[in-house]
Structures are given as C-alpha cells and as structure tokens.
Amino acid sequence: MKIAVCVSHVPDTATKINIGSDGKKIDPTGVTYIINPYDEFAVEEALKTKEKFGGETVAICVGDDAVKETLRKALAMGIDNAVLLKDSIYRDSISIAKALADEIKNQNADLVFFGKQSVDYDNSITGQLTAELLGYNCVTVVVGFQLEGNKIIAEREVEGGKEIVETSLPAVITAQKGLNEPRYASLKGIMAAKKKVIEEKPLPPAENYVEIIAMKKPAPKQPGKIIGTDSSAVPELVRLLHEEAKVI
Ligand SMILES: Cc1cc2nc3c(=O)[nH]c(=O)nc-3n(C[C@H](O)[C@H](O)[C@H](O)COP(=O)(O)OP(=O)(O)OC[C@H]3O[C@@H](n4cnc5c(N)ncnc54)[C@H](O)[C@@H]3O)c2cc1C
C-alpha cells in the first residue's frame, strides 16, 4: 500500500507575527517555522499504518525551499520519501489541492493523511478539496482510525461526542488532536533524514480563485484594571461586569 501524508510549514504558534510591507502577507523575518501541529498526527498515523500493514510512505509539501525543513521533520519521524512541489508564489487552497492531487495520483497513493487544519491560514479545506479532485472518499476531524482490508472505520470528533463512520479505500483522512501520540524523531532518524534526497518538482503557474487584498492585526487588548484587593471591591466589580463588560 502507498500512503501519502501532506504537510504544511507554518509559523511556530509562539512566534510574534508582523505583517509585511505590502500589507498582504506576513513578514517572515525572525519567524520560526515548524511542521503544522495537526500534520504530526497525520504523519504518526501514516507510520502506524505502514508498521501494521507494510507498504511505503511519502510526505508531500507545496512551497519554496524553506519547507524542506518540515519535510525533513517528517523523514526524521520515519517517513520513507519526500516530495517538494516547488513554488514561491502565493497559492490559494484550491491551487495547493490541485498540485497535491496530481502528485498523489502520480504516487499511486490510495490512503492519504492530512491535518484537519493548517494553523497559519486556518482554511481547514485542503484535504477535502484534494479528496474531491481525486474522487477519493474523505473523512475529516478523525480521532480514531482502523483499517480492515479495504474498509476504514473512523471516529470523528463532533460536538459533545464521537461519530463512528465507515468508508473504503481510496480515501483521504484529516487528522485531529487525539488521533495518536506523535513520536519524537530519534537521533538515528534525524541523521538518516539529513542524508535523504527530497525530490523537487516545479509546479506550473497557479490559477488562484482567492486573492488576499489585505491583512490586519487584531485590535490591541485593553490593559487590565485592578478594582480593589479585598471584598469591598465586589460591588464595583459586579457593576463593571454588568454595565461595561456586559457579561453578567
Ligand atoms: C509559496 C506559497 C506562499 C504563500 N503565501 C501566502 C501568503 O503570503 N498569505 C496567505 O494568506 N497565504 C499564502 N499561501 C497560502 C497558504 O500558505 C495556504 O493556504 C496554506 O498552505 C494552507 O493553508 P490553509 O489554511 O489553506 O490549509 P488548511 O486547509 O487549513 O490545511 C489542511 C491540511 O492541508 C495540508 N496542507 C495545507 N497546506 C499545504 C501545503 N502547502 N502543502 C502540503 N499540504 C498542505 C496539511 O495537511 C494541512 O494540515 C502561500 C502558499 C504557498 C505555497
């Protein structure tokens, strides 16, 4: 079985983000990038599935040279091969999905893992679009995954509980936190990943449907107020919560 896992390269959630001079994209200066946290669950599930059933795993990412760092992280965790679909120009989610779908077809992968969401642009749509373009079944926000022959039994997280669904290969699965405990890359894995060749493929120009016209930072938070330090402050606190904050 060929298992693909699609990974995105995102700013570390602890990094302070600034908007670039064109007002349309983030300024990458001083930003630390990491593998998208949900994609670590996707990588882990791809590895567990290979360990159980055999086959080959491949990590795929659309982006420029910088994303190789994220592909190497997937390799260090144990993924067999990596493909960089190279482009340095902005691509919207559908354009990324088209590039991924073509490569998945080319790889002949019948099981594909994605993260449920990329924590940079939060569209939460690339896996579903790719499945549609491939004509594969798709189960999203998965917290439990079982493969029995051609049959997939998946648990999905829904409001207040879980939903158990059944589908079959070929399929796209988008991973949610709780699906597994991603392994740490071993030193041996890190060293081996450094030597592996990342296959690079140029992409044709993107056909985007969505254009970013501006980015804005959230309004600065108001400073906190200390009303008092003992119980005499309670009436004023209640008044402010009622009249100003309007939360009670
Ligand atoms: C070179 C380049 C420059 C970009 N510059 C900008 C920019 O300046 N501003 C902007 O707003 N957007 C930019 N984008 C688009 C933005 O990075 C994508 O939208 C982002 O990759 C996916 O975010 P999303 O919220 O659409 O993904 P989601 O749909 O939330 O992602 C879900 C899952 O899809 C997979 N996935 C997502 N992206 C990729 C990928 N690139 N490769 C492989 N798998 C992926 C992952 O498994 C992820 O967990 C750029 C994209 C590229 C390729």
Describe this structure in words.
It is globular and about 70 Å long. The protein has helices at residues 37-53, 68-77, 93-107, 126-134, 187-195, 234-243; strands spanning 2-6, 9-11, 33-35, 56-63, 81-86, 111-115, 137-148, 151-158, 161-168, 171-175, 198-202. The chain has one domain (2-202): Rossmann fold (3-Layer(aba) Sandwich). The longest helix is centred in the first third of the chain and has 17 residues, at 37-53. The strands form 2 sheets. It has a 9-stranded mixed beta sheet with strand order 9-8-7-10-6-1-4-5-11, sandwiched between helices. A two-stranded antiparallel sheet has the order 2-3. It has 6 helices and 11 strands. By secondary structure, the chain is α/β, with parallel strands linked by helices. Bound molecules: flavin-adenine dinucleotide. Flavin-adenine dinucleotide (FAD) is lined by residues 6-8, 25, 36, 38-39, 42, 60-64, 87-88, 90-91, 93, 96, 100, 114-115, 117-118, 120-127, 212. Residues 6-8, 25, 36, 38-39, 42, 60-64, 87-88, 90-91, 93, 96, 100, 114-115, 117-118, 120-127, 212 line the site of flavin-adenine dinucleotide (FAD).
Shape type: globular
Average pLDDT number? 94
| Cα-atom radius of gyration | 22 Å
H-E order = EEEHEHEHEHEEEEHEH
Number of helices: 6
Q: Can you tell me the CATH architecture?
A: 3-Layer(aba) Sandwich
Strand content: 25-35%
- CATH class category label: Alpha Beta
Largest sheet: 9 strands, mixed
Number of domains: 1
Distance between the termini: 57 Å
CATH superfamily: HUPs
